[in-house]
């Protein structure tokens, strides 16, 4: 489609082409009634040929060629009317009117294709031609003034029309540029936010656990996890690879379970009739479960969590995943959700069209439910 400016320019060309087409239609009808005047056929053929050359080239290139405009003005707008008066046997204003009409579309094209001084020169030349031509056939002053007004107004209105459309095209291009810049900024922010979430759920969770002394830093599972997260950090710094989305819910959940089990949290997991979901949904469920299990390890005061994943019985194709612990729980009215729950659990599910709910009370543990509707 091109830019807004290019579309505006193309529309102006089409509009002037239709204007010329209406004048040529009048010419064909007028000449068809005068079969005894062959010069009129020759003149109409010349006007048709120049119109095809001028407007055809403009449609292909997206702009008028000034040389074609000058040829059209001189032949169609100036020579043709005077030739009909001198050699075509035209003696009455109605018999030359169709040729004079072509001057209006010639002035319109010149107004948008030529420099301002050249366009004014063309309009002046066409006005002189009209005055001379109508004087030769004895037209009264009202006819002359009417056609002169048509010449000038065609040029002025077409110029204004073009100026307005090009201005709107530039505004549209500017708006599109701003929108693209905003989308790029939004994409960069979303990517940065996703990296922050991943760091929070992986590296920060590991470092916090190691700092608390809750696990043996030399344990093989812990060292393996540290190695994986160091590789992730290296990719993040070098920007040489993207996070690979999991293709199955089971694969995503198993990786999340293994990740927290390496930090000595025991997880009992049960899966049943898992549906096929888009890769980004599986990744979101896996990442949300990982953060929910990290919260169990950090806050629940228990070394055991339960993960259950099934298809949604109420929505075919949907999925329901729950993470449960039997810790002390908390009062939702008095505890503000942290970054992990807000961004890594609720935020991730919302981004893929799902939702997360947290059911807890003091002394009753915590139940996190993740639902994706399918």
Keyphrases for this structure?
374 residues, alpha+beta, Heat Shock Protein 90, 2 domains, five-stranded mixed sheet, 11 helices, 68% helix, rod-shaped
Shape call: rod-shaped
User: Which residue ranges are poorly predicted, with pLDDT under 50 across at least 5 consecutive positions?
Assistant: 239-246
- Evaluate the radius of gyration: 39 Å
- Percent of sequence in beta strands: 5-15%
Kindly name the structural category.
Answer: alpha+beta
In total, the number of domains comes to: 2
Cross-sheet strand order for the largest sheet? 1-2-3-5-4
Organism: Streptomyces caledonius
GO molecular function: ATP binding
Domain Histidine kinase/HSP90-like ATPase: 283-373
Protein name: ATP-binding protein
Q: What is the topological layout?
A:
Layout: H1 4-32, H2 38-61, H3 66-86, H4 93-113, H5 116-136, H6 141-201, H7 203-212, H8 220-238, H9 249-261, E1 266-272, H10 279-300, E2 304-311, E3 319-325, H11 339-351, E4 355-360, E5 366-372
Parallel strand pairs: 1-2
Antiparallel strand pairs: 2-3, 3-5, 4-5
Helix pairs in contact: 1-2, 1-4, 1-6, 2-3, 3-4, 3-5, 4-5, 4-6, 5-6, 6-7, 9-10, 10-11
What does this structure look like?
The protein is of the alpha+beta class and 374 residues long. The chain folds into 2 domains: 4-174, no CATH class; 246-372, Heat Shock Protein 90 (2-Layer Sandwich). The protein has helices at 4-32, 38-61, 66-86, 93-113, 116-136, 141-201, 203-212, 220-238, 249-261, 279-300, 339-351; strands at 266-272, 304-311, 319-325, 355-360, 366-372. A 5-stranded mixed sheet has the order 1-2-3-5-4, covered by helices on one side. α3 runs parallel beside α5, α4 (93-113) runs antiparallel to α5 and α6 (141-201) runs parallel beside α7 (203-212). The longest helix has 61 residues, at 141-201. The protein is rod-shaped and about 110 Å long. 33% of the residues are buried.
């Amino acid at each position: 489609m091109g830019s807004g400016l290019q579309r505006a320019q193309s529309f102006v060309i089409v509009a002037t082409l239709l204007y010329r087409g209406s004048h040529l239609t009048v010419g064909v009808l007028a000449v068809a009634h005068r079969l005894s005047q062959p010069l009129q056929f020759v003149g109409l053929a010349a006007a048709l040929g120049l119109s095809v050359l001028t407007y055809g080239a403009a449609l292909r290139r997206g702009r008028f060629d000034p040389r074609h405009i000058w040829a059209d003005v001189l032949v169609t707008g100036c020579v043709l009317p005077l030739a009909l008066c001198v050699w075509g046997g035209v003696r009455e204003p109605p018999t030359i009117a169709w040729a004079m009409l072509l001057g209006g579309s010639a002035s319109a094209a010149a107004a948008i294709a030529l420099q301002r001084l050249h366009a004014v020169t063309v309009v002046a030349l066409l006005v002189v031609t009209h005055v001379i031509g109508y004087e030769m056939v004895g037209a009264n002053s009202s006819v002359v003034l009417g056609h002169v007004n048509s010449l000038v107004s065609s040029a002025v209105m077409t110029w204004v029309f073009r100026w307005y459309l090009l201005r709107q095209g530039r505004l549209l291009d500017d708006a599109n540029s701003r929108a693209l810049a905003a989308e790029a900024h939004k994409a960069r922010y979303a990517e940065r936010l996703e990296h922050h979430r991943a760091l929070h759920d992986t590296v920060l969770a590991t470092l916090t656990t190691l700092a608390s002394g809750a696990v043996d830093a030399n344990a093989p599972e812990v060292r393996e996890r540290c190695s994986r997260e160091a590789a992730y950090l290296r990719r993040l710094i070098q920007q040489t690879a993207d996070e690979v989305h999991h293709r199955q819910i089971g694969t995503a959940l198993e990786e999340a379970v293994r990740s927290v089990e390496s930090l000595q949290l025991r997880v009992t997991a049960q899966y049943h009739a898992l549906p096929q979901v888009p890769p980004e949904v599986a990744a979101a469920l896996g990442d949300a479960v990982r953060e929910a299990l990290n919260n169990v390890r950090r806050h629940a005061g228990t070394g055991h969590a339960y993960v259950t994943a099934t298809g949604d019985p109420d929505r075919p194709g949907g999925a329901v995943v729950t993470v449960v612990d039997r810790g002390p729980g908390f009062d939702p009215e008095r505890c503000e959700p942290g970054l992990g729950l807000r961004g890594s659990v609720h935020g991730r599910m919302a981004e893929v069209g799902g939702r997360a709910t947290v059911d807890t009370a003091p002394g009753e543990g915590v139940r996190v439910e993740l639902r994706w509707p399918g």
